[in-house]
Amino acid sequence: MLVSSIARFNAINTMNNAAYNMMNASNSMMGAMNSSAFGGEHNLSMLHEMDKKLSLDLASNSLLYKLAYLQEKAIAKHQAQELKQNKLNVLA
Predict the structure, then answer these.
(1) What is the pLDDT of residues 28-84, one digit of tens each?
(2) What's the whole-model pTM score?
C-alpha cells in the first residue's frame, strides 16, 4: 500500500511539473510573439527556431502530463482493488 501511494504521489508530482512546464512554454511563446510584433526581433529564422523549440516543449510536456495522468488513474484503481482484497481477507 505504501509503495503504491508513493508511486501515485510521484505521478501527481509529474503531472504538476508537466503542467507548469506547459504554462512556461506557452508564456514564452506569447512573449516571443509579442516582442517580435513590436520590433523586438527582426531575425525571422531565429523566431522560427524559437517557435519550433517551444512547440516541441509544449507537445512533449503535454504527452508527459497525459502519461502521468493515466499512470495515476491506474495506480488509484490498483489501490482500490488492494483495499477490497484486504477487507475480504479481514472478514474471512
Answers:
(1) 888 877 776 555 556 778 778 888 999 999 999 999 999 999 999 999 999 899 888
(2) 0.74
Residue 55 φ then ψ, to 5°:
-65, -40
Distances (CA, A) of 39 to 16, 25, 35, 50, 65: 35, 21, 7, 16, 35
> DSSP secondary-structure letter at 80?
H
Cβ atoms of 14 and 64 within 8 Å: the answer is yes
Asked if 90 and 26 count as a contact pair (C-beta separation under 8 A), the reply is: no
Q: Write down the H helix ranges in the chain.
A: 2-37, 44-91
Which residue in this structure is represented by grid cell 504538476?
A: 16
Question: Which cell goes with 55?
Answer: 512547440
At residue 84, what is the residue type? K
Helical pair 2-37 and 44-91, crossing angle rounded to 10 deg: 160
Nearest to 26 by CA among 51, 1, 63: 51
